[in-house]
Structures are given as C-alpha cells and as structure tokens.
Design a protein that fits this description.
The protein is 29% helix and 28% strand. The strands form 4 sheets. Strands 1, 2, 3, 4, 5, 6, 17, 20, 21 and 22 form a 10-stranded mixed β-sheet that branches. The two termini are 44 Å apart.
Length: 457
C-alpha cells in the first residue's frame, strides 16, 4: 500500500525514512516517487534533511511533496551531520536511511524491516540492503599485448583510454574500471586510464535493448591490435601511439546488473570496502547473511541501538561514518544483517565524485580516525603510523622522478596527504577520548571484533 508520509493515518508509523540532500534536485523526484510507491503494511514517515542546498531542491519538495517533512540545515553538515539532524529526533521504532540518488524497488521497505520480526532478532541493530548500480551494463573484455614501462613504473600496461562514448553519450566517468585499469591519471581534459593487458570493463547502457554504438578514444606505446569481446560477439581494433577514435557496434549482448554493495567489510590493513563491489549480479549474493558493517546508502536501524551509540560521528562529515558506526554497534554487542530481497538502484558518487579531492581527503582522514577509535592498539599504531611513512616515501619518489625527467614534481598528492595528517592530528585528542569511552563500555573487545576483518586479495 502507499506510504503514510505524514504519520496522520489510522496507524502510528513504525519507521522514519531519512533522506539527506545537498544540491540533489535532479535525484530527489525519482527517490521520493519510489518511496511513495512502497508496497508495505508498515506506515512510515519520510523526512528529507536539506544541507543548505543552493539549487531548487527545497522548492521542489514544497511544491510536489507536501507530505514530506523537510529539515533545513543552515550549512552543509555532510552525510554524518545531515543524517544526525534527523536521527536524533526520530521516535519511531526503526530509522531508515536512503541516499537521495537511490531508487528502491516497490517492496524494499517491507523486505528491509522484516528481519527485525524474526525469532532471535532482539539484538539485531541494522539491516543493510542489496545495492546495485542504477544502469544496466555491458561487460566488455579487453585483451592487448602488454608492456612494462620500466624505471620507476613496474606496471604491466595495455592501452591508454581517454574516453568511452555509448550511443553518442560520454559515459567515461560512469564506466566501472576496477577489473581492468590501474585507476585514473591526469586531470580535466587530460584525464585517462591505463589498462592492464587483459581485463573487463563494464559499460553503462543508456537503454536496455540493443544495438549500441560504442566509441573509444585511446592510444598505446606502439601500434598494435586490441581485441574487445562480449557475450555474443567480438571485434579487433587497431591502436597507435597517438590518441585516435575507434567505433564499433554491439548488436547482440545481454545487459547485466552490477553490485554496488551487499554489506561492507574491513580489511586487516584497516581499509573499508563494499562487499561484492563491481561483481556482475549472478545470484551469488541472494542469501541473507550477517555482515561486519552496513552501507549507509540504504539501511534500517533499530532506533534503540542507534540512539545508544549516538548515531554517526559528526567529525567524520563524509565517508567511513557508516563503518565507524558499525564497528561501535558490534562492540556494544549488536548484530548487522544483509537482506538480499531489499533492493535499491544507486547512482554511484552522484554527490561527490570518486577520487575527487573531497573524496580522497575524507576517505584517507576518516580511515585513520576510525582506526584510532575502534581498532586494537597494535593495529591502530601500525596502520596509522604507516600513513606518514608512505607520504614521505611518495614525496621522495616524486622528487626523484622529476629530477630524472627534468620536470616539475607533481606535488598535489603529497600536499593532500599532508593536509590529511594535519586534520587528523587536530582531531586526534578527541578521538583518543572517544576510544577510552568506547573501551570502558564495550561488550565485545577489540581483538575479538578483529576476527571479522578479512585479508585483501
């Protein structure tokens, strides 16, 4: 049945759905419309926290969604502070978070809340959703003769891709590159990706039915042929030492869904990660299971548990706040579950671009803050201490490379890491105080919790 967004119906609401928004006018309508289409027997409220948007977000909600409560912050408090604005007011038994760039399936809320009613779920703090990327994708296998540049670069490289266009739309920023490339290099119009000699990229498709016209702009260290293959076809294309465009048609292929998050993990090196990230969804994550950490994109909390933990840490602002909260909930003896039938489609990094300065700063700093608060002393000392050592090593390598090539050293990465360290040191006394408070009340101690951590492959 439709949601009771006002809470004024015949039944008291059992959940409050919180959506944090910052200049997300283009995403709000699909998100809120999907909430209004929820088929659930559980009345719920919808609250949107607006983090001082300067676009038409608030006007849109006032005009088209009068049943939605809008909480307006005078400044951008980030994901952590924005959610806390609402969460600290929630009085319903469950508090549910949904990203403004996520669109839930019609039965999402019903499925998400159901595990709380199961026998033995009294200590279940949170249920996290199955999050898939919003578009469907074409898996595209690349195979090329490899080469190793030598010198300070030991990588095995294939080709250098500058852009990918599908049916006239530049999708470069939305291609899922993780299984093929070494990550982005360069800036602005000069940004590119070096591939490995072999691997798979996932191309977002503007429509589910083919054919699709694909154009790649690429170069390599020398002239060579590259094979691109997909389910039902393949093409061999030339690449040269200069940037050139090559176009080809994909007439038969089966588009796939790709996993964004099916619960989160923490590696033994102290890095958080999305479980299942960029895996083609072939049913391998269709069983509910307990996970170490939740994903803040689409999750339901038992309000009692979140309130006892004082919700997110406001100092984190953006990124790692959900993993930090998960760690603290587990230390208090609560469990976290992944529910595969609660599905949302998510526009990844719609509000903050992955690998942007904002992304790098907050992920680097907040990982260190999280470890200081939650990790065992040996792990925290080891991983936090490694960061300045790595920073010094990177700076020295950059200087040596510049001297060899007689060029200006690339100082921005080092300056960013120094900025991270300064911010971390400013917050260190606060985090140490929080660490002591958490340790004094923990029901599950740090070494026991670290049995959940996994080794990075």
């Amino acid at each position: 049945m439709p949601s009771d967004v006002t809470g004024s119906g015949r039944h008291d609401p059992v959940a409050t759905v919180v959506v944090v928004n910052w200049n997300g006018e283009r995403w709000l309508r699909p998100c809120l419309d999907a909430l209004q289409r929820q088929q659930t027997s559980r009345p719920f409220l919808t609250w949107v926290v607006d983090n001082a948007s300067s676009d038409g977000s608030v006007a849109l909600m006032e005009r088209e969604y009068p049943g939605v409560r809008v909480l307006r912050n005078g400044e951008n408090l980030g994901f952590a502070g924005g959610n806390n604005t609402a969460l600290r007011e929630v009085t319903t038994p469950y508090a549910v978070l949904l990203n403004n760039d996520a669109t839930p399936e019609p039965d999402w809320l019903e499925r998400l809340l159901a595990p709380f009613d199961e026998p033995g779920a009294e200590r279940l703090a949170a249920v996290t959703s199955k999050v898939v990327f919003a578009p469907r994708f074409l898996p595209l296998q690349l195979d090329a003769p490899g080469f190793v540049p030598g010198g300070a670069d030991p990588r095995d490289l294939g080709v250098r891709i500058a852009s990918v266009v599908v049916d006239g739309e530049d999708v470069t920023s939305r291609v899922l590159w993780e299984r093929l490339t070494w990550g982005p290099e360069g800036e602005g119009a000069g940004r590119f990706f070096w591939t490995r000699p072999s691997g798979e990229m996932l191309l977002p498709l503007p429509h589910a039915d083919g054919p699709w016209e694909v154009t790649v702009r690429w170069a390599a260290e020398a002239d060579k042929d590259v094979v691109l293959s997909w389910d039902g076809g393949a093409v061999t294309l030339p690449v040269t030492g200069e940037l050139t465009e090559q176009a080809f048609a994909v007439t038969t292929a089966r588009p796939v869904d790709v996993v964004n998050n099916v619960g989160s993990v923490v590696f033994t090196a102290g890095y958080g990660a999305d479980r299942g990230y960029q895996d083609v969804d072939a049913g391998q994550y269709d069983e509910p299971t307990e996970v170490f950490a939740l994903c803040g994109c689409a999750v339901a909390f038992r309000t009692e548990a979140g309130r006892a933990a004082d919700w997110f840490d406001d100092d984190f602002f953006l990124y790692y706040e959900d993993t930090d909260l998960s760690w603290r909930l587990r230390a208090a003896g609560w469990a976290i579950r992944y529910e595969p039938k609660a599905v949302v489609r998510h526009v990844h990094s719609a509000s903050s671009v992955e690998w942007s300065p904002t992304f790098v700063f907050h992920t680097d700093r907040n990982r260190l803050l999280m470890l200081v608060k939650n990790a065992s002393t040996p792990m925290a000392v080891r991983e936090v201490g490694r960061y300045p050592l790595t920073t010094g090593s990177m700076a020295l390598r950059t200087v040596r490379q510049a001297a060899r090539t007689r060029s200006r050293p690339a100082v921005r990465p080092t300056l960013m890491r120094l900025r991270v360290l300064l911010s971390f040191l400013r917050l260190l006394p606060t985090m140490l105080a929080k660490r002591r408070a958490l340790g004094s009340t923990a029901a599950v101690h740090r070494p026991e919790l670290e049995k959940w951590l996994v080794t990075q492959r």
